[in-house]
Amino acid sequence: MRYSTFLLLTFFLSVSCSKSNDDISPGESDGIINNPEYGIWQDREEPPVKFELIDRFEFEENNDLIISNVGSFTMDDAGNMYFLERNLNKLISLDAKGAIRWTTGQKGRGPGDFENAYSMVTDGRYLYVGNLQGARLDAFDFDGNFISSISMNKDISFGSVLGFTSEGKLIYTSPLFGRIGTKISVLSIGEDSTSVINSFDLDQANEPEIMNGFNSSSSLAIHDDKIVSGHIGSYEIKAFDLEGNLTKTITRDFDNLVYPGFAVNGGSRSMRMFGSLKSPYFLKNGYFMALSNWPANISDPDAYMKKSTAGSAPEIEMLHSLDIFDSEGKLLYSFLGDGYSPELGSPTHVDQNGFIYFIDYSDNVAINKYKLVLPTDE
């Protein structure tokens, strides 16, 4: 099977050519919301959706703390911010005004140390860090004090913590090697161990298999006890219940996304991602936004990988689309642009008041806090 082939989505929406975008409604059938290429507000003279900058938190460079890699951003109810600085192997907290409250951690495997810590979530009481490539779950309080470590179940490995259900169960994700997708495990956390309540596999592409030993996946989110998945190669947002049942699919008539590329060169094998549809960020009013990115100058990812191994591949030209949907999954408006992410930065978190936080790497690393302004707000 060729992974370089673009998959065309099939839609059941019949739209008259004489209709404007404001007259277009997405089709819905058996839990599927099919959207046209552009939303109902796209043809308006001025963008009806605006991002209003509320605050910008910049990091001053010093010899002790040079922040360059902000990952696994989360917040508490008081507006304090927490993130992993992966290059420094530290957990860092900022107050609501962006001032550093505390830092903790160093490279190592001892209590409070970090090594290959890729994920962090909170249950409102503690911060839980997926440490040692997800093999260990470390708990910290909101003052940066190390609380405890739990070794993860050996049946799941190389994974990440995603979030908590309304009943306090931890959602853990791990790779599916040889496939594009993710294994979901619902865990109960004890004092010194975790136990698997339920697990299931999520496909995140329309290709059943990839090269042995490799895994590829798009991001995931948990919202209202649903696992919400992005996709690779086609524009599909899918929601699953905690048993793995598909409950909703949202599509867009948009065929620019590209599957990963593969190459074999002698005894070595390689794979490269060329963008994806990220999982949505849910706003306070039920609306949500999704970011996708793709290469403008690659139509055959396998051929590109072959050129890459020979040292003759061109520089990749990336494009992106930041799409705004209403609570039912109807596409409203798309912000299109060059690069992997918007000038706003890369979206990372939505707080309890609906403010959106973007990580901005364009100059010095900064966190931008925005409010999404909709026509109904004006």
How far is the N terminus from the C terminus? Answer: 51 Å
Task: Give the helix level as a range of percent.
Answer: under 10%
Low-confidence stretches: 1-25
Count of distinct strands: 29
> What gross morphology would you assign?
globular
Strand order of the largest sheet: 1-2-20-19-18-17
The main sheet comes to: 6 strands, mixed
Name the assembly state: single chain
What is the beta-strand fraction? 35-45%
Q: Count the DSSP helices.
A: 1
Computed Rg: 21 Å
Q: What's the helix-strand series?
A: EEEEEEEEEEEEEEEEEEEEEEEEHEEEEE
Structural class: mainly beta
Which SSEs are present, and which pair or pack?
Layout: E1 27-29, E2 32-35, E3 50-58, E4 70-75, E5 81-85, E6 90-94, E7 100-104, E8 119-122, E9 127-131, E10 136-140, E11 146-151, E12 160-164, E13 170-175, E14 179-189, E15 194-203, E16 215-216, E17 220-223, E18 226-229, E19 236-240, E20 246-252, E21 261-265, E22 268-272, E23 281-282, E24 288-295, H1 301-309, E25 318-325, E26 331-338, E27 346-350, E28 356-360, E29 366-373
Parallel strand pairs: 2-20, 14-16
Antiparallel strand pairs: 1-2, 3-29, 4-5, 5-6, 6-7, 8-9, 9-10, 10-11, 12-13, 13-14, 14-15, 17-18, 18-19, 19-20, 21-22, 23-24, 24-25, 25-26, 27-28, 28-29
